[in-house]
Amino acid sequence: MDKAIIAREILLLEAFEEARASAAKAGIEIIPLKGAALLELGIYKIGERGMSDADVLVRPEELAAFEGILAGLGYQPMPNSADAWLRPGANSAPPVILDLHTGLWHIKNTDELFDWGLEPAPGGLSLGLEDLFLHAAAHPLLHHGELTPRALEDCARIALSAPGDGEKFWALAARKAGVYGMRPVIWPVVRRLARGPLAIPESALAALAPRGLEKVKAAFFERAAREHSVLLEYLLPVLHRPVLLLKYAVPEKRFMLRRYGAASAAAYLLRPLRLLISILRR
After folding, report:
1. Could you tell me if 236 and 145 are in contact, meaning their C-beta atoms sit under 8 angstroms apart?
2. Looking at domain 1-106+119-127, which of 3.90.850.10, 3.40.50.1000, 3.30.460.40, 3.40.1160.10 is its CATH number?
């Protein structure tokens, strides 16, 4: 294993644990996502996956208080980022980066995860395996318009870590995917896993398969899974949740200040043009 990857992962996990402990003292609950969760739950061993930052889920109403805690721990807002905070490393070490999330694009109400989707983990609480799988499957397509080999590996490992023969895991994942309207989003992942390392029960495959008009949406997600497209990167979230179009066009004041340094009327008027330029440049 690469010693640099091992050292980086240990550093980020220790930083996350420090932030979680400080938040807990203030009565704030934070949840690890992506690599931080996969490492904490033992789905990957230290040094196997690689991390550039630690992703953190926090309730929207507790964000300001948590950011105050991070400032007290020596973090500062990361330049040109709306969500990340960094703490300079000692000597020549790279900075520690915590990427904060107050919502997950694949579901409407993140509070549902805090209220019903958490399970005990070695250092606190974490998403249950089914919600962790849905997030890992949806995130690369909804946020980046692509499906990477690492994302597929993450999903496969999560499913394989389920207790027993995995039948209960797949049944719960299918049920939640239906409730959240996620079948078109995650179907490209499910199809690829079913052809490869996993024996997904036929009943779960039938429950996860898109139906009716969902098949139209699924075709767009499958297209992105085959090849990244900048246009689809912006289109797929809106296909899944049309309300996100408004968030694109008129972001919150906090986002505007962090990303552009201004939240004036002129800054909001320029936002669509900036989005168009971003799409064309890529």
Report:
1. yes
2. 3.30.460.40
